Amino acid sequence: MNDLPRTAVALHLLTIETLLDDLIGGRTVALENGPTLALDDGPRSALDWYRRNRDKWSGNLRGDDADAIVDAVGAAPPPARSERPPAVARPTRVLRLARVRAHRFAGLHSYGCTGEDTHFVFDAGKPVTLLEGVNGSGKTSLANAVCGV
């Protein structure tokens, strides 16, 4: 193993690139609810082979690919990249949906109304909202109205 400090970084803070860098570099990754993950030298070298051969992540491997992975496992692990600065914790913002008002947005309108007052209005009175309905009833249209799509 290397002599780098093994400070665990939370998995949800990593991209696929930084996750690969950390695991291949011998750093520890913190999983949800406390457990951590670190790789020994052999798996680190094999994972580095896959990082360098991204086209091999899916599909069948050829015999020469399997030989290359076996050779990688037997080789010394790659040198660790330099440590990156620790992530800065930001305050968590909580947004609550209060109301959705739409006028013929993606088919959202007040059912059965005629004339100009066909606005669809949804007031979210509870902290959790469950949308249920058959195909074509407007679940996705409502979600798109909230997201501004």
UniProtKB/TrEMBL annotation:
Pfam families: AAA_23. SUPFAM superfamilies: P-loop containing nucleoside triphosphate hydrolases. Residues 108-147 form the Rad50/SbcC-type AAA domain. GO terms for molecular function: ATP hydrolysis activity. One of its GO terms (biological process) is double-strand break repair. InterPro entries: P-loop_NTPase (IPR027417), Rad50/SbcC_AAA (IPR038729). This is Rad50/SbcC-type AAA domain-containing protein.
